[in-house]
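Technical appendix A lists one of the benchmark inputs used to test multi-chain prediction within the project. The record comprises two sequence entries:
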Amino acid sequence: MKYIDYMQLNPFQRFWYNFSSAMKALPGKLKNFFVAIGALIVKFFKGIGKAVAGYVSRFIKGDWAVKISYLIMGFGNMVKGQFIKGLLFLGLQIAFIAYFIFFGWGYLQKFPTLGNVEQGMQINPATGGYELMPGDNSMLILLYGVLTIVLTVIFFAVYFASTKSAYAVAQQVAAGEKPADFMSELKDLLDNKFHVTLLAFPTLTISVFTILPLIFMILIAFTNYNKAHLAPGKLFTWVGFETFAEIFEMTEGASKGATFVELTKWTLIWAVFATVLNYLFGMILALMINKKGIKLKALWRTLFVVTVAVPQFVTLLLMNQMLQVDGAINILLMNLGLIDKGILFLNSTALVARVTVLVINCWIGIPYTILITSGILMNIPADLYESATIDGAGPVRSFFSITLPYMLFVTTPYLITNFIGNVNNFNVIYLLTNGGPTTENLYQAGYTDLLVTWLFKLTMNSQDYNLAAAVGILVFIVCATLSLVTFNLTKSAKNEEEFS
Amino acid sequence: MKRIIAMILAVLMMATLFVGCGGDENAANGGATALEPEAGATLKVWAPDAALDVFKAQCDAFIAQYPDAGIKIEVVAQGEGDAAAQVLNDPEAAADVFSFACDQLNKLNDAGVIMPVNTTLLDDVVARNSEYSVQAGTLPFNGTDTLLAYPETGDNGYFLYYDKSVVSDEDAKTLEGVFEACRKANKKFIMDAGNGFYACMFPFTGGLKIEGLEGEDNDVQKFNDYDEAEVVATLEAFAKLFHEYDDIFESGEVAKIPSGFALEERTLAAGIDGSWDAAAIKNGLGDDFGAVKLPTINVNGEAKPIVSLHGYKLLGVNAQSKFPNAAQLLANYLSDEECQLERAEKLSWGPSNNVAAESEVAKNDPAISAALAQSANSIPQINISGTFWDPMGNLGNNLFKEDAKYDTATLTALLDKTIANVRDE
């Protein structure tokens, strides 16, 4: 379609055109995506092959000191005068070996079975009390097994670096250069290699506090760690994809499969509405405040944003109380004569509760949208509006043709994070309805439960940790796919130059 | 230079590791001949917030019994409702002695984090506590039924509280009477009918019973061979009553009961609540304070006593306690007659101790005697699967909701589904 044809379509036709062309492009995009992933994997293995080749060739080409440092890390550096560096390598090697022998290996060898000795308690005749005979703790074996594997990988990376370093310093000496001393290498860290210095701490903390637990949690989904296999009293073990099969199990009544499908549907509906409503209403409010001729702008802005001053969980708990059958809202409505019996906002039908939750979420979310959008709205060049007015465009037309495209362009990444945040919006649901209204048709869940609150109930009420981990993985897959696809479809990803 | 960073990174990681694994292995503890607390034992005790001061004083009295041992005890607030979950989170960091509701016992036992009662103290503990409370603390352990925890209270159940100026003692005998009296005064009747702990009274009154756990992994709730028609008829009677009196019947959190009674103009006339709120309700009602076992309900002409779930609070000893003997002695001390009496007096906690239950303090306290009277019409809250509560709560919700149908067919289907959901079928 030519540009001129496109301009003549009405907004709905345009949307349809965009949507259908995006859908048509989707298979190609998906193909590209998998091709790119394949290329990445090939690249990765090629890189490893190259590294191994380099590793071997350096051993052959290197002198005796280099050869020894293949066994004793840092030897080559020490011989060539880089004492401190060499000692650090050596110390690291000793520390790792000590860790591996005295701690890591014990857990690692049990990792394939996650332990086989169950804990016991026997009466000690001397005191009459029970004495704990610690057995294998499957959870600790899993945790420290993962840790040992990660540390081993890191150690081999360092080992590889050390052989490279030994070879490099040997080359330098052979070429007649003086190897850099330790102080100058340290100084280099504040200069040429400053990025390394800066990134070291975040990398470390993210590895320890995010990546390690993540691997651990993902692995739990492949075990039978549930209420019948609680550590430390009982052992649990690997079961492969059984847990995932259990989630999709369709039996009559409240099966986990039916619950998963129903909750996924509601989670997506919730995420779309929660995001879009907050965004649109927030922007409209911001526009109204920014409009020419509005007096006391600062006052209005403060008033609308003041809800942020109350912590979110406090607001939610208060709302929960206000929406009770004898809560403030019902009493108010009754006193006004609008109703003569209290309405069960959170505990009658699915629809009422879901709408209520969405409305309350607006109360919490709109102030943030106002804050974010007012600044951007003021940045839209005024001449765009002026020329639109001259061309005869009304306010609605300017909104859809100037404001919205501009805003969407700037805020799409914000919308995507917001959407993902809403998929995982634990607070609003848990504090407001706790998943209610209850139903006999869902397994351990109510009508407003999101996948993430269901996950919480599975862990806290029925100790099905493996199910919860599997649900978590599925939620991640849904979120990742959606955000990748939407982001790739957005203008901000396609032509980054347009509005700048 | 990348190497140096990689190295520093690795060193740091290892340093954190070694810090983490420092004082791990000190499981050995010398065997004494008689049960004496370990010298220099430091213990942590979990008790509910409201009882913190009482527990602190009682722990001090325990320390004074062993002046040479140099025991230190720290009492930390921790609700009994999720004590087991907290212990399971990190048994090593959890309290040595913790107070919990007895339905959590199988969870604690399955996870192997609770240490059974010391055998030298066992006979005494069994003898001095009521039979049911001992049963509530007993589960199969190493193949034999073993007392796993010390009975702490005998009244962790619910019963009827009422305002004597509105509901007469005669009215309080039947649910219909209570409702009628409430309507006359235009005051509410409040219970948490959407909460499984209370809602299970509806099917229980009709003859449903829970009989422990079964199945391969011992995690499926077992029910008795109940008479479906009778259970459904009872559910129908409850639902009919709730709908008929929907102007005064309200389902809400039990916290509304003490607060409603405490208002200048009381908003409610009666409610179903437990002994934990007794002190607050007594404060609010003063001379009008009434507490009695649950009333009867008219099911097809027959006045059936309402059957409740009756729990016991237990004191458990952490299996990973560094000072097991001191912890056992402390739990034993905190659960003995003297301490139970003191708590009955100061907190209105009904004793599980036989002597304390017969004492003047317990008999003169209407709440405690109501709880103990209700325990005769109850199902002990032991061996309950974690999947029990939500479906039961849903059952309750469906009996009072305005738009819920309550004909025989609907309720039969509801009952079947509820039981299937509890059993995870």
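Chain A touches chain B through 80 residues (CB under 8 Å). Residues 62-240 of chain A form one domain. Comparable benchmark entries are summarised in Table A2.
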